[in-house]
Design goal:
The structure is a single chain. By secondary structure, the chain is mainly beta. It folds into five domains: 92 residues, Immunoglobulins (Immunoglobulin-like); 78 residues, Carboxypeptidase-like, regulatory domain (Immunoglobulin-like), CATH 2.60.40.1120; 83 residues, Immunoglobulins (Immunoglobulin-like, Sandwich); 131 residues, TolB, N-terminal domain (Rossmann fold); 82 residues, Thrombin, subunit H. The protein has five helices and 42 strands. A six-stranded mixed beta sheet has the order 30-29-31-32-33-42. A six-stranded antiparallel β-barrel has the order 34-35-38-37-36-39. Strands 6, 9, 10, 13 and 17 form a five-stranded mixed beta sheet that branches. α2 crosses α5. The chain starts with a helix and ends with a strand.
Length: 529
C-alpha cells in the first residue's frame, strides 16, 4: 500500500515537472514599465527608442513612458538601451542590464520598472559666415549671453534644455568683422546662419619727401566726415576701421599744421579695404644732413701731421654745423652705416648712394686729404652729393696749425654758399612769391640772390614726380622764416607748393660768370668774392 502511494507521488511530481519544463522552454511573459527623463531638467523625453538585446521594441509616448511585454526565460540577462536620436536632440544613451528572475506565481506576469535619466539636451546649429566663407573662432551670443565659439568650419552647436517662449537674438562677432545678428524662433534642430561683414580698413599714410628721401609724417590729424579719428603714427600711418554697410561714401580730411597743404580732403567710397596716401611738404625746410667722412694723408704720420688732420676735421665740423642749415652726422655713425650697406668711398664718390638705405641718413659727405710742399701744407676738400656729384672741390694752403681755423671757416662758408638749397613757394602774390627760406635757417641769403622756380608736377597722391623750370626770381626782402622774391624772367605761373632752388653759376678762368641754370662749380681754388 505504502509503495503504491510513493509511486503515485512520484508520478504526479514528474507530470508537474514536465508541465513546468514545457512552460519554461517558451519563457516567461514579462511586463516592462519604462519612464525616460532628461537629467538637466527632469522633463519627460518623448520618442525615445526602447531597445532590448539590440532589437527596437518601440518608443516612449508624449509623457516619456513606455509599456510593453516581452518573453524571456528565467535567468536570462537582458540589455536595455534607451536612445533619443531625433534631429535637434542629442542625449547620451542610457543602458541597463538585468536578469530575468523566477516568477513567484506562474499565473501572474512579472513587472519590471525602470526610470531612465538621459544626459544631454536639445540643440540648434549656428553657422557664422562672411559671404560664403565660414568664420572660425567667432563668439556666439544668445540674447546677449555668451554661448560658445565656432569651430574650424564656422559652426557652433548650442545645447539647451528649456523652451524659448519668444524669438531669440543670436549674434556672432570676431575681431576684424562687423558683428552679425539673426532673430529666430528657437526650435530643436533649427539651423541658424549669422552673416558677418569684414571691417573695411582704410589705410591712410602721410608722406613727405626731402632731398629725394621719402618718410612718414607723425601727428597728422585725421578726420572722417568732419569728425576727428586720431593722428598718424611715427611712420605716418593711420588705419580707419569702417564698421558700417559697404559702398558708403566718406570724406577723408588730413590736417598738417606745419606742411603744405595745411588741409587736404578726398571723398572715398568704402567697398573693400583700400589705401590712401598723401604727400605734404614742410613749410620750414629741414637741415641738410652732412657727414665728414675723413681726411687722409700719405705723409709720414708724425705728431704734427696727426694734429693737423685732427684740427682740420674738428674746426670744419665746428664751423659748418654752427650753421642751422646743416645737421651733423657723426663720422663714426657714418662709417658704420657705410659698412652695413657694403659701400666704399670709391662707390660713394662714383655712383653715389641715392639708391641705397644710406640715403635716409645723409645728404652729402665731405672728404679730404692733407699734402705738404715747400710752402707748408695743402688741404684739399671735396663735397659730394648723394648722386655722387662733386658739389665743391677746394684746395687751401696753410703754413701750420695756426692757419687751420681760418681755413676751416672759409671752407664752411664756401660749402654753405655752394649747396643748392631747396625751398617751397608758400604764397603767391601779385608782384612776386613768398618762399620758406629765411635768415633763421642759416642759408646765408642776401638781396639779389637768384632762385630757379620749378613748377611741380604732382601725381594723384600729391607726390612731386617732376618739375618744369618756369623762370628765375630774385630775393628782395628777407625775414626770419621766409623771404619775398620778385620775378626776373618767369614764363609760367607759379603755385603754392612749387619748388625754388638756389641758382648756381660756373665761372670762367677770367672770373666771368657763365649762365645756364643749376651748374656745379668744380675745382675752385681760393677765396670767394
Amino acid at each position: 500500500m505504502r509503495n503504491n502511494i510513493t509511486k503515485n507521488s512520484l508520478l504526479i511530481m514528474s507530470v508537474l515537472a514536465l508541465f513546468l519544463s514545457a512552460a519554461c522552454s517558451k519563457g516567461n511573459k514579462i511586463e516592462l514599465a519604462i519612464e525616460a527623463r532628461s537629467v538637466s531638467d527632469g522633463m519627460p523625453l518623448s520618442q525615445a527608442k526602447i531597445i532590448l538585446d539590440n532589437k527596437e521594441e518601440g518608443e516612449t509616448d508624449s509623457s516619456g513612458k513606455f509599456n510593453g511585454q516581452i518573453i524571456r526565460k528565467p535567468g536570462t540577462e537582458v540589455e536595455l538601451v534607451i536612445k533619443k536620436d531625433a534631429k535637434g536632440y542629442r542625449y547620451e544613451p542610457w543602458k541597463k542590464a538585468f536578469i530575468i528572475r523566477l516568477p513567484k506565481d506562474s499565473a501572474a506576469v512579472d513587472k519590471y520598472e525602470f526610470i531612465a535619466e538621459l544626459s544631454g539636451g536639445k540643440y540648434i546649429t549656428i553657422t557664422a559666415k562672411e559671404k560664403d566663407s565660414p568664420i572660425s573662432s567667432a563668439q556666439i551670443m544668445i540674447d546677449k549671453k555668451k554661448a560658445g565659439v565656432t569651430n574650424d568650419k564656422g559652426i557652433y552647436e548650442h545645447t539647451y534644455t528649456g523652451a524659448f517662449s519668444k524669438e531669440a537674438v543670436i549674434s556672432a562677432s570676431k575681431a576684424g568683422y562687423v558683428t552679425g545678428e539673426s532673430r529666430v524662433k528657437i526650435e530643436p534642430g533649427a539651423e541658424v546662419v549669422v552673416n558677418l561683414a569684414k571691417y573695411i580698413n582704410l589705410n591712410i599714410t602721410a608722406h613727405t619727401e626731402d632731398y629725394g628721401v621719402v618718410s612718414g609724417i607723425a601727428g597728422i590729424d585725421v578726420y572722417i566726415n568732419g569728425k576727428p579719428q586720431g593722428k598718424t603714427n611715427k611712420n605716418g600711418e593711420f588705419v580707419y576701421d569702417y564698421k558700417g554697410e559697404p559702398n558708403k561714401k566718406v570724406t577723408v580730411e588730413l590736417k598738417a599744421a606745419d606742411y603744405i597743404p595745411y588741409s587736404w580732403k578726398k571723398d572715398v567710397v568704402l567697398k573693400d579695404s583700400a589705401s590712401l596716401t598723401r604727400y605734404f611738404y614742410p613749410v620750414s625746410p629741414k637741415p641738410i644732413k652732412v657727414g665728414i667722412y675723413k681726411f687722409a694723408s700719405n705723409l709720414y704720420a708724425d705728431n704734427e701731421v696727426k694734429e693737423i688732420i685732427s684740427r682740420v676735421h674738428t674746426s670744419l665740423s665746428e664751423s659748418l654745423f654752427d650753421n642751422k642749415a646743416f645737421k651733423d652726422v657723426p663720422t663714426n655713425v657714418l662709417i658704420d652705416e657705410v659698412k652695413k650697406n657694403k659701400l666704399s668711398l670709391d662707390k660713394m664718390t662714383g655712383k653715389g648712394w641715392a639708391n641705397t638705405n644710406l640715403k635716409k641718413l645723409i645728404d652729402m659727405i665731405i672728404v679730404g686729404s692733407i699734402g705738404k710742399d715747400d710752402k707748408g701744407y695743402t688741404v684739399e676738400t671735396k663735397v659730394y652729393t648723394s648722386k655722387g656729384k662733386i658739389l665743391l672741390s677746394v684746395i687751401k694752403q696753410v703754413k701750420g696749425l695756426r692757419d687751420i681755423d681760418s681755413a676751416a671757416r672759409d671752407l664752411a662758408s664756401e660749402i654753405a654758399e655752394r649747396f643748392p638749397f631747396e625751398g617751397t613757394v608758400v604764397a603767391v602774390e601779385d608782384d612776386g612769391l613768398k618762399i620758406n627760406l629765411g635768415k633763421a635757417g642759416g642759408y646765408r641769403l642776401s638781396r639779389g640772390m637768384e632762385f630757379d622756380v620749378q613748377a611741380a608736377k604732382f601725381d594723384n597722391e600729391g607726390k612731386i614726380t617732376g618739375v618744369n623750370n618756369i623762370g628765375v626770381v630774385e630775393l628782395k626782402k628777407i625775414d626770419a622764416a621766409s623771404s619775398f622774391a620778385a620775378p626776373v624772367n618767369v614764363k609760367g605761373k607759379a603755385a603754392i607748393g612749387d619748388k625754388v632752388v638756389r641758382k648756381l653759376y660756373e665761372y670762367t678762368e677770367a672770373g666771368q660768370r657763365r649762365t645756364g641754370g643749376l651748374i656745379y662749380r668744380l675745382n675752385w681754388e681760393g677765396d670767394t668774392h
